[in-house]
Design a protein that fits this description.
The chain is built from five helices and eleven strands. The chain is of the alpha+beta class and 209 residues long.
Length: 209
């Protein structure tokens, strides 16, 4: 969660910088740009420490982490091919197309099985929604256990669903949503609040060639 908090802070600094530029507060733009750069540098240090810690863990744990990184990269590659657009990395989970028209947020999950249901779980932050809304086209990309089961959901469809998603509220009042994708022979469905309340999201799955 610490890395996600840094991503949120970086997004906020960039957003405030854009607003300051529009309002011609150029000194504030310089300050905010430096703030974003400092946050990114600090985030890189956290990532390096995380990687160093991983090097001291068991071999199986290392393989698991490397597998998740590769899984995430494969989902980005699938999205690039599907949307026919090259993307530039903004943070660990967010990307913008080179023409500046499209934003994507990429998240991956392993498959869970509670004995009665198989599902995939993701967290979704409010700042990620703001990021997807900041471009003409925004897409939430969800990797469900494998790059071969990747969903690309337009944010214009997903945004209204957040009002019916379960969420966790932190002590400081900030929150994040829970995305639960249920799977069975009938396909993939997004679980909403309320018993049996689900949305069919199978149509958003990238079809393998």
């Amino acid at each position: 969660m610490l890395i996600e908090e840094f991503e949120r802070a970086i997004h906020e600094a960039n957003r405030e910088g854009a607003r300051a530029f529009e309002e011609k507060r150029y000194q504030d733009v310089k300050t905010l740009m430096q703030q974003a750069e400092d946050l990114e540098s600090f985030q890189s240090c956290i990532v390096e420490l995380d990687e160093e810690w991983s090097s001291r863990t068991t071999e199986s744990e290392q393989k698991s982490k490397k597998g998740k990184v590769a899984f995430h990269a494969a989902c980005v590659a699938k999205t690039t091919e599907q949307l026919k657009s090259e993307f530039v990395k903004q943070t660990r989970s967010s990307f913008v197309s080179k023409d500046g028209e499209t934003a994507i947020v990429v998240s991956v999950s392993r498959e869970y099985d509670n004995g009665t249901q198989r599902f995939y779980w993701f967290s979704f932050q409010p700042y990620q929604g703001e990021f997807l809304q900041s471009k003409a086209n925004g897409f939430l990309v969800l990797g469900c256990a494998s790059p071969d089961r990747t969903l690309i959901i337009p944010y214009r469809d997903f945004g209204p669903w957040t009002e019916k998603l379960n969420k966790s509220i932190r002590d400081n009042g900030s929150f994040y949503w829970h995305i639960k994708i249920v799977t069975d022979d009938d396909g993939l469905r997004l679980k909403l609040e309320g018993k049996g309340n689900q949305v069919d999201v199978d149509k958003y799955q990238i079809k393998n060639k």
